[in-house]
Amino acid sequence: MLANVTFSEKEISLIRNIMKDNVGIDLSDFKIPFISRRINARMQLKGVREGSEYARLLDEDPLEPLNLYNSLSINVTKCFRDPNVWETFRANILPSMIQKIGVNETIRVWSAGCATGQEPYSLAIMLNEAIGAKKIHFKITSTDMNRVSISIAETGKYDPKSLSNIPTELFPKYFQKLDDELYQVRDVIKQNVDFIVGDVSSVDIDSMDLIMCRNLLIYYSRDAQELLFKKFHKSLKQDGHLILGMDESMLGTIGTSLFLPLYPRERIYTKAKEDLS
Ligand SMILES: C[S@@+](CC[C@H](N)C(=O)[O-])C[C@H]1O[C@@H](n2cnc3c(N)ncnc32)[C@H](O)[C@@H]1O
Is the CB of residue 120 below 6 angstroms from any atom belonging to ligand 1? Predict the structure, then answer.
């Protein structure tokens, strides 16, 4: 195991420039401590001891920029992650969301940074249960920058560990057992969930009733977060909702003027009326 390296500003800026000039990837939105940890992890794997040596590798090895970029995509997730957030949403937000939607209309949701898909499928199960026999539709657009995660999401195949929060009584209704280690989301749910590879900042999306962007913003600088809050504000309908991750909040950001906290502990917000964009 090699010792962790602390990078100088010059080394970080050299690495950012190589990524931008050679492969067109802009790392400037990410928090520096986060980038430093990921670069250290790549250096360990490659047996590289110094920042300048890693910068050379990045410049000369055509595969390394993509490996570094992919290492910035932390795809830890599971179904109904943070159950209290889901329960608060189900009990307090979902009923009025359904009540407001007209017959044959569609509830539209964006799962931004959906990783391998457990979040949008959880949402689809919850919506399907709450809508029941009512003549209402829903569509969940799920996006992530990581192509590999999206292809896993599209298969809808998961191991039992990532499904452990699914209520037992709902399991057979929504999952088909393939073998002891693998279950697949049934079509009744899959047909309402679309997956797209794309950066959260550039996906073109609007008129959403709900945006879930959980455990993505923590990796980004304050400036990048503020741009994303503006984008989310624009992408939501007037009375739409935003749900962030438990370690994310609006405090001290432009977000506080764009969103009102409904359930601050669960990071559930509603869009504020004025449009500052
Ligand atoms: C930790 S996972 C969160 C998954 C899920 N939302 C949850 O909370 O369980 C973060 C995901 O955000 C994605 N991500 C990070 N930055 C992104 C960006 N700029 N655009 C799109 N996806 C991004 C990563 O690829 C990763 O899959």
Answer: no
